[in-house]
Amino acid sequence: MRVDAEDVKYFHVVAEAKSLVRASQELGVDYTTVSRRIGRLEKTLGTRLFSRSTAGWKLTPTGEGLLPAARMVSLGVEVFADGDPIVSSPEEWTVLAPDGFAATVLAPRCGRLIAESGIILRIVTADSLASRDGVSYDAAVVRTKPTSPRVRTQELVTYEIGLYATEDYLREHPGISRIEDLQHHVLCWYAEDPLAAVPDFATLRPLLPNIIRLQSNNLLIHEEAALAGAGIAVMPSYIARRRPSLIRVLPSEVTYKGQYWTVLPAAQLRWEITRKVVRFLREAVLDAGLATYSEEEPQ
């Protein structure tokens, strides 16, 4: 079986674009050419790499497993096409992480990394692997340990969730001494149907008012709403402590302690880069003052 490297490059571009039209635009060819090359690659391999629908092209489990290798082949094709075997593109790292963790733990600590290493760092916000299905990545940070055999996992850091509001808000609104008092307040948190794998939602939701008045799937919106005095935000303590004006509400009654996990694709072929990414994640959580990460090897 002989596979055309250019076909593999087309496969990689379609997997990232999730659309035949967008992939053809990126490659600078007609979409029928892209479709023909993907069809030829699938015929050569004897398996489907994508499931097609009006919503786009989604990787099959086989396609997902081949994606890390396809990314390397695609990069190799580009280096050879440039005609210079010495000069190649900078290393590219892709990290998936929840929005709050990405914005407050990773983003503030990537400047020195980029300046010293010259890498291209791509941080993609995702609350779960399912929410970014088909996106190739070097490492992901999630709040629920995956059970898929296609990934390896490692404990990264613990976190705590609580209620936070400003002193002005608490002074101007009815007092809060027990959970039942929350019924008289605006709470800022996730929608009733949050993205998959948000364990704190399932645990804390029964304790909170029947109606969450301000709903968003973005943690930073919860934070900004609380800072503006719009209500009480349900948020991680490591984010809240960045804001001296936020005060913890009912710390003993409403609390959740969870775990962030580092997830690595089992079929990852860029292990040297992966080790660098994992080191960056570990150093970021330590620098942010979170609990110490696990020293165990990914399982």
Automatic annotation (TrEMBL):
Pfam families: HTH_1, LysR_substrate. Keywords: DNA-binding, Transcription, Transcription regulation. InterPro entries: LysR-type_TF_proteobact-type, LysR_HTH_N, LysR_subst-bd, WH-like_DNA-bd_sf, WH_DNA-bd_sf. GO terms for molecular function: DNA-binding transcription factor activity; sequence-specific DNA binding. This is DNA-binding transcriptional regulator, LysR family. It comes from Rhodococcus jostii. Residues 3-60 form the HTH lysR-type domain. Belongs to the LysR transcriptional regulatory family. PANTHER family: HTH-TYPE TRANSCRIPTIONAL REGULATOR, TRANSCRIPTIONAL REGULATORY PROTEIN. GO terms for biological process: DNA-templated transcription. The keyword DNA-binding applies.
